[in-house]
Amino acid sequence: MFDAVNNLRACLDQMTYAIAWKHRDGGGFAPFPFCADTNHWPNKIKGLKNRLPPEILALFETFKPYKGGNDALWAVNELANVKKHAIMDSINPRPSYIFGAHSEKNEFEIFRSIEPPERHPNIEISYRIVIDHPEEVFQAQDPITLLDAMRSEVERVLNVTESECRTIGLFDG
User: Fold this and answer.
1) By CB atoms within 10 Å of each CB, which of 13, 94, 104, 132 scores lowest?
2) CA–CA–CA angle 46, 159, 18 (5° rounding)
3) Per-domain residue ranges for the chain?
């Protein structure tokens, strides 16, 4: 999952770099403008104003790539940067098949000696894998669901940005 997240982040940085390269005739590096929150956004954009066309900076503002703005997009940057600290964890171990329940004893019976001996219990324990991270956005999230949300958002950003670049004549076609 973390390799996939890093690749999503790299797609956004490569796109932004290509725009800066074309806008400045081969000069300058410009990463995609992720930031911590809306308070940090003005400084992030100010740092890119000479590297990217104003139309693209305005477009990036609509993506809100910060916590509390677009959490799926912000999650791409957060997981790419803290992958060593965010771990996947298994929770909710529970038998998918239980032999019996005793409501009067308020307990489940999982194993029991069964007669005749040729009958064997078949118990399967299943775990739910989640992301264990202190940020509320990730807490107990299913990794596949979160990864799909991040992928969808990155795809949208790439498509909308490409369209705007073509509209302003930065790229042909």
Assistant:
1) 104
2) 50
3) 2-86+134-167, 90-129
